[in-house]
Amino acid sequence: MENKLIDRIKGGLYGVAVGDALGGTTEFMSTREIEAKYGYLTEIIGGGIWDLEPGEVTDDTMMTLCVAEGILDNPGEPMEAIGRFFMEWYQSRPKDIGNIIRHVFQKYEGDWFEAAFIAHMDMGQSGGNGSLMRCLPAALAYKDPADMDRVTVMQSRMTHYDPRCTEVCVMYNRMAHRLLQGENLRAAIMAEVVGSEYEGMIEAQPDCPPSGFVVHTFRWVLHILLYTTDFAGVVQQAANLGGDSDTIGAIAGGLAGIYYGYEGIPARYAEAILIKERLDRTISKLYAFKTS
Questions:
Q1: Residue 241: which H helix or E strand, with range?
Q2: Which of 87, 106, 121, 278 holds its CA 20 to 30 A away from the CA of 287?
Q3: Which residues have C-beta within 8 Å of that of residue 128, sequence separation ≥ 6?
Q4: d(C-alpha 130, C-alpha 60), whole Å
Q5: What are the percentages of helix, strand and coil residues in the chain, rounded to 5?
Q6: Whose CA is closest to 92, among 112, 131, 63, 64?
Q7: What is the mean pLDDT of each run of 10 residues along the chain (292 residues)?
């Protein structure tokens, strides 16, 4: 069981990074543009709107690592540490940062929830997928589901005032918690969507664009996970959607990575990631904390 747990935790974090790196090539493209340029993208080649190096990740993976490192720094009350890692990353002038998150960072003056509310009011909405893309470490780290839920909610509200973001983050991490315990993928998804607005939406092909709106993103993530039979298929489908493909790939890749395990991620994908050493250090610490 312990060997399976480390394989699942490693699969989850690498799943985020691989989905991000593969999908980063096609972000903001249409399916027609992707088909004309790449046919069907299956390899991590970089490029795209951010001119990525092959294996370079974007804000999805980097902010996921900020959440993980903040939790590990102060598991009981990680908000200050997560925020500190967010701002260190922001000050490194990353290529890719979402509009809502950028606005919150610019408004932050010591109170994350206040900054998130101001950004929500300024922009007229805060229903993006930027807190969902980074929330997985709360499921990877905490044994107690109550701690997982509490930190999942907190990290979302730090930047996204819209309650739909919080709701979806909690559903997602509860699925991850089930998968870490060895549940079947479809069963884990269905257990959490029954009774939610997603229950009647997940069987059919989504009738929404693969956009950064958290509801659209989550519908595509669930559809891909339910109708794909291996890890490679999950991240490839996400990448070939275009739109917010890196984030959909990262979110779907996180759950797929837990379910199929690190051993289920094609070696050429895992080896391509440029920040493997940082990922491996974080994975070791998450596993040690989870089993302490």
A1: none
A2: 87
A3: 98, 99, 100, 101, 160, 165, 212, 213, 214
A4: 8
A5: 65, 0, 35
A6: 63
A7: 88 98 98 98 97 98 98 98 98 94 97 98 97 98 98 98 98 98 97 89 87 97 96 98 98 98 98 98 98 95
- Between vectors from CA 127 to CA 121 and to CA 132, what angle results, nearest 5°? 130
Rg (C-alpha) for the chain, rounded Å, is 17
Distance CA 97, CA 54 (A): 19
Helix (H) or strand (E) holding 125: none
pLDDT of the residue at 141: 98
The answer for residues whose C-beta is within 8 angstroms of residue 43's C-beta and 6 or more apart is: 22, 268
What count of other Cβ atoms lies within 10 Å of the Cβ of residue 183? 15
CA distance linking residue 222 with residue 21, whole number of Å: 20
Q: Dihedral of the CA atoms 15, 240, 171, 201 (nearest 10)?
A: -150
Q: What is the pLDDT of residue 2?
A: 64
